[in-house]
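Chain A, query sequence.
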Amino acid sequence: MNRFVTQVSAVCLCLAMVPCANAASKKKKKQTDLSANPLANVNSKQPDKELFDKAMKAMKKGKYDVARLDLQTLLNTYPDTEYAMRAKLAVGDTWYKEGGSAALTQAEQEYKDFITFFPNTPEAAEAQMKVGDIYYQQMAKPDRDAQNVMHAEQEYRQMLQQFPDSPLVPRAKQRLRDVQEVLAQRQFEVGQFYASHENWPATIARLQTVADSYPLFSHSDQTLITLGDAYVTQAQTAERLNLPPKAKVELVKAYNDRAADAYDRVVTRYAMAPHVEDAKDRLIAMGRPVPEPTQEQLAESEAEEGSRTSVKLKDRAMLLVKPGPSTVRAARVGEPALTDTPQTTAPDVRNSTVAMFNAALKSQPLPAGPSYGGGATTASAAAVGTGTGAGAYAAGSNTGNAVEMEAIPSGTSGGNSTSVEIVNPGANSGGATGSEAAPVAGTGTEAAPGNGAAPAAPANSGAEYGLKPVVPPADTNTALPPVDKPAEAADQVNDVKAGSAPAQVQTGTAKGKKNPNVPVDKSKESSTKKKKKGLDKLNPF
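Chain A, predicted structure.
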């Protein structure tokens, strides 16, 4: 009995406490709503406060034009109100939430005006952050136009540099990491494209820019490995060039040193990256020592790789629908780059390669002869400009040498002239190329050897190059033989001579009529319509 009474008393006590709890929660919720507005006393019934609250309610309901009208009325009617700063910022918010290219452009202008009028307020950092968000929302994929991405990077950098004490700094840093991930992915894809087409100066320029400008890129290990592979390929190309041995060794060593530096950076800076073992294998294949990363480098690389979000099937599916880029693999830790590093361009890489060739060739003078007639600058330009591999230097080295001709023994007794019989004068009208030219008639001298110029003809020779025309002797009256004409062909059977009537076919019947009894072989007649057989006779078509 006592136990039952105790239980009933406990239930009644719980029921009595429920209304108190509801009242407390309602009271707490009401206090939270009242303190949501940090501008002034919410119980105030001032007209500027009423206009501001009305505009905020309209903006929450999506009536952005009504909200803008109320805010403009507030600013024009009460220019000295304490809500002026928030009202000016709210005008930009209405354009920002409305969306669209025109609305976002207008929102950017409103935020810029707000920063100009209120540069030292906490709301100025918020306005600058929203300017970066405007371009962030309009970013395209890495293979598209990158103007919005570059503008977003510039605005976020300005926000971090101008407002370093703002509570929005962590969010701005993460947005900047996402933006730089997209820019690095763009440069990386372009570098891979040039590598697939074996354009090594352009490949090195793009990948070196990614490695220097965006150290937090999710594919930094692949970037440096591809960069090292490009240098190794150039070293292999230099080994096939026709260079002096010492110069070739120095040039190959310079390329291999650059490749080893790229692989070393993967092992030390990105020790926990997925492709670090590939870099180690390449160093071992080159005979270079594999460096050991320090504890700080290991901790930094581990933190970066651990902060990245794995790409799921949902993220890949969203890329098919989402117009913007994917920033899932962007790092969540680390300091993004706030300044632009000098970018590497393809002309810079080519000039560096030319300088390497010249330095290698100056260490050992070129031997005299046709193999190195082009000089140092010609050698480097041929190797870099073509980019086709072996034989580039040798192909352009003999351009300045004359072509040697084989001497033909003289057929005359004097030994100071060469007789050449010209069978067809018109054949050599373009100049002698592979043999010596014919001697000039009547002079006893020879023309210059075949160097691309036509042989000189005598002044009175005309177009026959000194050959006499075939004419009958002047002291005889013998006429030339008649010109041979082909015999007339025999008359054809089916030809009808002029003035004759066609013969009538006599078939034993009336003149001009056919004999109906004459058999005709229809098997020899051509017809596209074949006779139907079997069941095909029943088919009317």
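The first helix runs from residue 2 to 34. Confidence is low (pLDDT under 50) at residues 18-38, 364-463, 505-512.
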